[in-house]
Amino acid sequence: MSGRAVVVTRIAAGIALLALFATGPASAAPTPRRVERFWTPARMAAARPLELELGREGRAAVHLGPRPRAASASYSVVASPEVPPFAWNGRLYLRQAGKEAFCSATAIDSASRRLVLTAGHCVNSGPRNGKPGVWSTDLEFVPGFNLGVAPYGTFVLSGRPRALPGWTKEGNPAFDLGAFLTEPNAAGAALADAVGGGATIVTDRGRRQRFETFGYPGGTERMRTCVSGFAGEDPITAPLPGPSPIGIRCDWLPGASGGGWLIDGGQTIDGLTSYITEGTKNPLTYGPYFSAATVGRLVAGL
After folding, report:
1. Contact 243, 291 (CB under 8 A)
2. What predicted TM-score, i.e. pTM, was given to this entire model?
3. CATH code for the domain in which residue 173 is found
4. What is the pLDDT of residue 14?
5. Which end of the chain, N or C, is more open, meaning fewer C-beta atoms within 10 Å of its C-beta?
6. Which string of DSSP letters, residue by residue, matches 162-222?
7. pLDDT score of 7
8. Parallel, antiparallel, or unpaired for β 224-233 and 246-248?
9. d(C-alpha 291, C-alpha 203), whole Å
10. Residue range 99-109, pLDDT digits in tens
């Protein structure tokens, strides 16, 4: 094969891969140090949780939630969030449409040692008025975050975030998945090396798992956990394309969006918090089903 043919083949392969997911804007991104300086303790404290609400026909809309709401009885406080594997989970600060907000996220054990997994609506707002979603900026992940302390330092966005077109263009909760790579912390350590590993993504498992879920609901600055088995699929979003979201019996409040659902003793991640049903006696939290065609496609090459 000629050199030109090899180049053309590689370009075609790259275009095919990019078609599988959407990435953030190619404009110049803030420098890591500028992002770190932006997230002062005062801004962190003032940030509001992101909420995802289902609209007509199961389409989703994202907005800022209210400031502090008390955690419900379905949570337990993680006593030692700085200890692995708890420390693989953390709080994610971001700006969306110019507003300071926060979600939850998980450090992933990947070849790059720099990967973070969260909800799609934490990196992209989803479509608005018929237009693709707005990308979040100034992303900063704080693993093991506890009462304002960052035991492993902070890890800011490197390059551009990723989300699936099913989320960015369609607002379909089945594809509410986001991922991004991070810069090393101030000590020069890559994320997974700093926290002692990271959760391994698994796909296409059975839905009936025992999920140990994590997040930072409401205004809490302490990591919380809730354990639940499979509680059914969401009948509202079931008719939409893609695998039906999974339900758990955890009343996660805003701010827990993107928090990991770990299985196998906390070593692997097989779901994350996306949205909650409202107006019911026993509200359920739902998250996208992890398949090779969804989360596997999203993190390919990362």
Report:
1. yes
2. 0.89
3. 2.40.10.10
4. 38
5. N
6. EE-HHHHTT--GGG--EEEEE---TTS--HHHHTT--BEE--S--S--EEEEEE--TT--S
7. 31
8. antiparallel
9. 5
10. 999 999 999 99
| Structural domain includes residue 10 | no
List the domain range (segments joined by +) for residue 66. Answer: 26-298
3-state secondary structure of 7: helix
- Write the pLDDT tens digit of every residue in 154-183: 999 999 999 999 999 999 999 999 999 999
Q: Looking at this protein, which amino acid is placed at residue 114?
A: R
Number of structural domains found in the chain: 1
Exposed/middle/buried for residue 7 (C-beta within 10 Å: 0-12, 13-18, 19+): exposed
The radius of gyration computed from the CA coordinates of the chain, to the nearest angstrom, equals 18
Q: Are strands 200-201 and 268-272 parallel, antiparallel or unpaired?
A: parallel
**Which residues of the chain register pLDDT less than 50?**
1-18, 66, 68, 70-71, 73
pLDDT of res. 74:
64
Asked if residues 81 and 89 have their Cβ atoms less than 8 Å apart, the reply is yes
Q: Is residue 9 part of a domain?
A: no
Residue type at 248 in one-letter notation: I
7 assigned to some structural domain: no
Q: Are 191 and 115 in contact (CB under 8 A)?
A: yes
- The count of C-alpha atoms lying within 13 angstroms of the C-alpha of 243, restricted to the half-sphere facing its C-beta, is 22
pLDDT of residue 55: 57
Residue 172 in domain: yes
